[in-house]
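User: Reviewer 2 asked us to show a designed sequence for the structure in our supplementary figure. I'm pasting the C-alpha cells here. Could you produce the per-position amino acids so we can include them in the response letter?
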C-alpha cells in the first residue's frame, strides 16, 4: 500500500498511525501542537504542523499531502453546544473542509476516508442503518453532514464516510463522568458505542479492502440500556454507582453495524465493551 496521510493524530489518529506503521505503511501525520511533533517523530511518523482553519490552511499542507494516495481526515468539529444554528457558527467546520478540498485536488490523493459521527442521525428512534435519512439536531452533527456531502460529491477523488458512535477506550469512558451522579436521564435508552480498538480495526479493513464510495456506521452490536451498562461499568471500575432517573426515555435509537459486518467481514471485539 502507498503512503497514507492522517490529518489529525490525536486520540484515534496517533494509535491508528502506529498500527499502520506496523504493517509497513509510510505515514504522514499532522498535529496542531508543536509540542506533539517529537512524539509523532519518535513513533516513526513523518510529522507535520498543520492548522486547518475556516480562514485558511498553513503552508505545510502541500508537503503533508505529498506522495500520499490516501488521506484520512480525523479532525473534530469542536463546536460549542450554544451554537444552535449554522448562521451563528458561521459554518466553521464546513469552511475548514472547503479550504482543504482544493489542496486534495492538487495532490496525488485518490481516496479520502472521512471520520464522521452517528450524530448526523439525531435522536430519531428505531433501527438506524446507512439507508436512514440523516436528521442532525446538534450543531456538530449538522456541519459534519454538510462536510460529508462536500467530499462525497467531489469527482476528483473517491470518499468513504465512517460514522462512529460514542467513542470509548482504556483512557476514555463516559462512566467516569456519570459515576456518583444522580437523576441521570434516559435510563432505558440503548447505548451505541465503539471502542478505539474497533475504530482502528475497521479503518484497517476499509484500507486493505479498498472499500471506497461507501458510508459505514461503526457501532458495536451491543446495546444494553444506559442504566444497565453504566451501572455495571462503574462497579467493574470500583467507581461510585450512577443513579438514573425513574422516568423512562423516549429515545430508542439503535445504530446497526450489519453493513460493516457483512461488507467488510469484520468481527467486533466485544470483550472490550
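Assistant: Here is a per-position design you can include in the supplement:
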Amino acid at each position: 500500500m502507498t503512503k497514507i496521510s492522517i490529518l489529525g493524530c490525536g486520540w484515534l489518529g496517533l494509535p491508528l498511525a502506529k498500527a499502520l506503521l506496523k504493517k509497513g505503511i509510510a505515514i504522514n501525520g499532522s498535529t496542531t501542537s508543536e509540542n506533539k511533533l517529537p512524539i509523532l517523530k519518535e513513533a516513526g511518523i513523518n510529522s507535520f504542523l498543520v492548522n486547518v482553519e475556516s480562514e485558511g490552511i498553513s503552508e505545510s499542507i502541500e508537503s503533508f499531502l505529498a506522495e500520499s494516495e490516501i488521506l484520512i481526515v480525523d479532525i473534530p468539529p469542536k463546536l460549542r453546544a450554544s451554537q444552535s444554528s449554522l448562521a451563528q457558527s458561521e459554518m466553521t467546520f464546513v469552511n475548514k473542509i472547503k479550504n482543504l478540498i482544493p489542496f486534495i485536488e492538487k495532490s496525488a490523493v485518490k481516496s479520502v476516508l472521512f471520520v464522521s459521527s452517528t450524530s448526523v442521525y439525531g435522536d430519531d428512534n428505531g433501527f438506524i442503518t446507512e439507508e436512514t435519512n440523516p436528521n442532525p439536531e446538534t450543531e456538530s452533527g449538522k456541519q459534519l453532514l454538510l462536510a460529508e456531502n462536500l467530499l462525497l460529491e467531489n469527482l476528483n477523488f473517491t470518499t468513504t464516510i465512517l460514522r462512529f458512535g460514542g467513542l470509548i477506550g482504556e483512557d476514555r469512558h463516559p462512566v467516569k463522568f456519570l459515576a456518583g451522579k444522580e437523576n441521570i436521564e434516559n435510563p432505558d435508552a440503548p447505548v451505541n458505542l465503539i471502542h478505539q480498538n474497533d475504530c482502528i480495526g475497521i479503518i484497517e479493513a476499509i484500507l486493505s479492502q479498498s472499500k471506497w464510495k461507501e458510508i459505514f456506521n461503526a457501532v458495536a452490536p451491543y446495546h444494553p440500556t444506559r442504566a444497565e451498562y453504566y451501572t455495571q461499568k462503574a462497579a467493574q471500575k470500583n467507581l461510585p454507582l450512577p443513579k438514573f432517573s425513574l422516568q423512562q426515555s423516549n429515545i430508542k435509537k439503535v445504530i446497526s453495524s450489519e453493513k460493516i459486518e457483512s461488507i467488510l467481514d469484520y468481527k467486533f471485539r466485544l470483550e472490550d465493551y
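For the response letter, you might also mention the following. The chain is about 35% helix and 20% strand. Residues 3-168+194-221+253-272 form a domain with the Rossmann fold fold (CATH 3.40.50.720).
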